[in-house]
Specification:
CATH topology of the largest domain: Neuraminidase
CATH architecture of the largest domain: 6 Propeller
Structural class: mainly beta
Largest sheet: 6 strands, mixed
Strand order of the largest sheet: 3-4-2-1-5-6
CATH class of the largest domain: Mainly Beta
Strand content: 35-45%
CATH superfamily of the largest domain: TolB, C-terminal domain
Helix content: under 10%
């Protein structure tokens, strides 16, 4: 991505060098000269009508002149609105290096950040568990559930798989794995939506109810194992990919004699033989509106459990970044890293991934406006995806109006 400089950094990089302005913009040159006090040698501009003229007693030349200069002695400051196009020209045509040989004027830093996030071109996979049938009431939408792909630049999105899907994990190469929430079926698929393998867990809530509530998914690629969380039973199934069978059950809590949805465990993440589990209630009283949710780690070798964070409201989407945990404190719309709030969002936050430049956060249509109104003067009801820059604390929202719920996000 394009790197920008503040005025102090610019003064450092231009020390002992002759300065060239690239672009004859009245506004940008005037603002740049107010903060940058050094002498300017000349201006270059692509507008042929300006060549061999002068502006503020500075000669204006064709940018071709730059090819003959020694850039150990010169430095370019871009003062044109087409700044990103000029960056491309300097890097690709003249083989100059951003920051070392040139930079965009600091007065345009916010404009650059806007352009970068606005034009960021990345494909993102996300899951949705909506029903298309209106008889399902609050859980239905016109688009219906499935696995979708959205492009961040044009905001176009399309469905590659139908179903009520929750967690998405990368398996290998271009193969991904997800879990159908109410069928208890694990699906292996490619980016074209072709199903490559299915594992039916045949989990029952009771003898007379075939409905499952499988939501979280973690993967051990070396051992070819999957970990699947069951919110109805507060337990985790260890599934062999090879045999397609449950080989072990991990009880999240031994507090109750009979397994039931006391804690409402949901998402899972596996790191170095530790399985991280998010849940609605540590005390097991979420059905009584006691939301002391959080993350607990389970050591898969010793079986020991450790609370990582507590007192969150319906948290989801555990991930790790730079060896630090991330979690969405969903009802409060908070992105938390190692106990610190990185960003606030005015909606129900669920679904999380990142690349080298941005974090990607899912937002669902919220049923918890009363919980948000004390924090925000405006609650957003759209479903969609945020591109979030944790350095600038700025974001861009991509709406997905045909669906209600986003559960997980995967950068592809």
């Amino acid at each position: 991505m394009t790197i920008t400089l503040n005025i102090n950094q610019l003064n450092k990089f231009t020390r002992g060098k002759k300065i060239i302005f690239f672009g004859r913009s009245d506004d940008l040159i005037t603002k740049t000269k107010k903060i940058f006090k050094k002498k300017i040698s000349f201006i270059v501009d692509n507008n042929k009508n300006l060549l061999n003229q002068k502006y503020i007693n500075l000669s204006i030349y064709n940018p071709k002149i730059l090819s003959n200069l020694d850039f150990s002695k010169y430095y370019i400051i871009i003062t044109a609105t087409n700044c990103l196009g000029i960056v491309s020209f300097l890097e690709n045509k003249l083989k100059l290096k951003n920051i070392k040989n040139f930079c965009i004027s600091p007065v345009m830093n916010d404009w650059v950040k806007l352009c970068l996030i606005k034009n960021y071109d990345k494909n993102i996979m996300f899951s949705c568990n909506d029903f298309k049938n209106p008889n399902y009431g609050l859980r239905h939408s016109s688009g219906g559930g499935g696995i979708y792909i959205i492009n961040t630049k044009n905001n176009n999105y399309f469905k590659i798989l139908k179903g009520q899907f929750r967690c998405i994990r990368h398996y290998k190469k271009e193969i991904y794995v997800s879990i159908e929430q109410f069928k208890g079926t694990i699906i292996f698929f490619n980016l074209k939506g072709k199903i490559l393998k299915e594992i039916s867990l045949k989990i029952y809530k009771s003898k007379n109810n075939l409905s499952a509530n499988t939501v979280g998914l973690a993967i051990d690629r070396k051992k070819e194992l999957l970990y699947v969380s069951d919110s109805y039973m507060d337990q985790i199934y260890v599934v062999s990919i090879k045999s397609k069978k449950i080989i072990k059950r991990i009880q999240f809590s031994t507090k109750y004699k009979q397994a039931n949805s006391y804690h409402h465990i949901n998402d899972l993440y596996l790191v170095n033989n530790k399985l991280y589990v998010s849940y609605f209630s540590k005390s097991g009283r979420w059905k009584k509106n006691i939301f002391d949710g959080g993350i607990t780690s389970i050591n898969l070798l010793s079986g020991k459990k450790k609370v990582i964070i507590n007192n969150l409201i319906k948290p989801h989407s555990i991930k790790f970044f730079d060896n630090k945990y991330l979690i969405c404190n969903s009802v409060k719309g908070e992105l938390i890293m190692n106990g610190k709030v990185l960003g606030d969002f005015p909606g129900f936050l669920r679904g999380l991934d990142y690349d080298d430049n941005y974090f990607f956060l899912g937002q669902s249509e919220t049923l918890y406006m009363s919980g948000l109104k004390f924090k925000y003067k405006n609650t957003m009801n759209n479903a969609g995806i945020y591109l979030f820059d944790i350095k600038t604390k700025s974001s861009r929202f991509l709406a997905t109006p045909s669906i209600m719920n986003i559960h997980d996000i995967k950068v592809i």
